[in-house]
Design brief:
The complex is a heterodimer.
Chain A lengths: L2 E6 L7 H14 L4 E5 L7 H4 L10 H5 L5 H4 L1 E2 L6 E4 L12 H14 L2 E5 L6 H8 L3 E6 L3 H14 L4 H4 L5 E9 L1 H5 L6 H8 L3 E6 L2 H9 L3 H4 L4 H13 L15 H6 L5
Parallel strand pairs in A: 1-5, 1-6, 2-4, 2-5, 6-7, 7-8
Antiparallel strand pairs in A: 3-4
Chain B lengths: L1 H10 L2 H18 L6 H16 L7 E7 L4 E7 L10
Antiparallel strand pairs in B: 1-2
Classes of the chains: A alpha/beta, B alpha+beta.
Chain lengths: 271, 88
């Protein structure tokens, strides 16, 4: 039975696309068939983050409007066989998405894949509500920062009211993914702690992704961080989160960058 | 002592963030329900009652809302024009 997962946040720039790509790749690496769908019509970026920008021929809007078959628009990842991407359109706007069209595409994807990961656009408008519409589960990406937490709270409200599941009176499974976390700053009281965010939003924690230059490096190179540098702290955190999505019980730790002897000696990283 | 206070106060901004969030979200969650426009509605009705008895200029009405953890205040400050000379 396929699972549809929306990666959402309300606020922009918190790491939705990075997380959708990293989680998708991690799930696919365990042999599951995964598709990541970019819902950010007009501002597509998942193709870039996944390194498929030069292979886009057809997109989600083409499929919805019947100009292309779903199989023609899907791009298979070159590194992981079981990972596919359905890109968003760059030239159209969000009005090109119709509720009926999205319902049809999601139903078709459910038949082909084990996991359908919908990368939501920022905001709470049409694009975001359509991305969450058919989801069975949601990953709410949040930075430990006031505006992000407030927006996440708003999105949680929408997940509990505007989705098909909510309308049927069923429970929407929601997970918190805390990104750009800096343990040192949180311990010094400069940044909201995990417990603070959890207490305020009261949804279960899926993972804590440490702030890391590896995330930017991976997107520069067009490779999900879980594939680009699997040993890095954020990659290990995403891999753990993916295992939790699959139902495994994994102890919650904030991975730290592995440091060499010289780096440890001087107490800081050498770039 | 002062100096220490200064440094500690500067360092721990997270507890302030946490408290501010708890307050604002408590209100936003309450407002997203059926009482969505309660404050706006209150304003309108209070002004309507006052307007029934006194001539008020909407420009001279100042409304302040302060949402706190345990109590909130809605302050409506209506400046009434001085009786124009020779009105009687």
């Amino acid at each position: 039975m396929a699972k549809v997962l929306v990666v959402t946040s309300g606020k922009g720039g918190v790491g939705k696309t990075t997380s959708a790509a990293a989680l998708g790749a991690a799930l696919a690496q365990s042999g599951l068939n995964v598709v990541v769908v970019d819902f950010d019509v007009g501002l597509r970026n998942l193709d870039l983050v996944m390194g498929a920008e030069r292979r886009v021929v057809f997109d989600l809007v083409n499929v919805i409007q019947g100009d292309a078959k779903l199989a023609q628009a899907l791009i298979r990842d070159k590194r992981v066989d079981s990972l596919s991407l359905l890109p968003a359109s760059q030239t159209r706007d969000k009005d090109a998405l119709t509720p009926e069209g999205i319902a049809r595409v999601i139903a078709e994807l459910r038949e082909k894949f084990d996991w359908v990961i919908c990368d939501s656009p920022a905001g709470i408008e049409r694009g975001a509500t359509l991305a969450m519409r058919h989801a069975d589960q949601a990953v709410v990406v949040t930075n430990p920062e006031v505006s992000s937490v407030r927006d996440s709270d708003r999105i949680i409200g929408l997940l509990d009211s505007k989705t098909e599941r909510a309308e049927r009176g069923e429970r929407m499974e929601k997970h918190l993914l805390l990104t750009r976390y800096d343990t040192g700053r949180a311990n010094r009281g400069e940044m909201l702690k995990t417990e603070d965010v959890l207490e305020i939003l009261s949804i279960p924690l899926l993972g804590i992704i440490p702030e890391s230059q590896e995330v930017l490096r991976a997107s520069n190179l067009g490779s999900p961080v879980t594939l680009n540098n699997p040993d890095s702290a954020p990659a290990r955190a995403y891999a753990d989160a993916a295992r939790r999505l699959r139902g495994e019980v994994v102890p919650m730790v904030v991975p730290e960058e592995k440091r060499g002897f010289v780096q440890r000696l001087f107490g800081r990283r050498v770039a | 002592m002062r100096l220490l206070d200064y440094f500690f106060a500067r360092r721990s901004s997270a507890p302030v963030a946490r408290e501010r969030l708890q307050i604002v979200l408590a209100h936003e969650r309450a407002l997203s329900g059926a009482h969505g426009d309660l404050v706006r509605q209150l304003q309108e009705e209070i002004l309507a009652v006052v307007a029934r008895h006194l001539k008020i200029d909407r420009e001279m009405v100042h409304i302040k809302l302060d949402r706190g953890a345990s109590i909130s205040t809605l302050e409506i400050d209506i400046q009434m024009p001085a009786e124009p000379a020779g009105a009687h």
